[in-house]
Fold ATP synthase lipid-binding protein.
Amino acid sequence: MGLNLRHLSCQPSLTGSLLVRAASRSLYRPVSAAVLSRPEVKPEVSAAVLPQVSLRSFQTSAVTRDIDTAAKFIGAGAATVGVAGSGAGIGTVFGSLIIGYARNPSLKQQLFSYAILGFALSEAMGLFCLMVAFLILFAM
């Protein structure tokens, strides 16, 4: 719907009401509906140019792709939170190693082997979270 002001300038009584009606109609209509409902202009093509078998490709709108991209970034960011938990876990493991060694220095070797095991498990969980984040970003 195009509002041509040149034609409306001859009729001053209708100009204000038509402008208000057109403006209010564009305000209550969402932007996505306005973008998606625009008619597409198709060039005329003769029947001889068209192939005998018509192929249909999968098409998505720009709005859908933007929403999908935003969802990917949000999901990857949420999956990366586990890396911070891994860092906190590693800090807890080695903090406990220092406290345990301070209480009983004769158990140094056994406490250290437990600390390395805790470090490995905590680091593995952080790497799994990072892997899931990269899978969300690049594999989907």
Summary: The helical segments are 5-8, 12-28, 31-36, 62-79, 81-103, 108-138. The first helix runs from residue 5 to 8. The mean pLDDT is 76. Residues 62 and 125 are 36 Å apart (CA to CA).
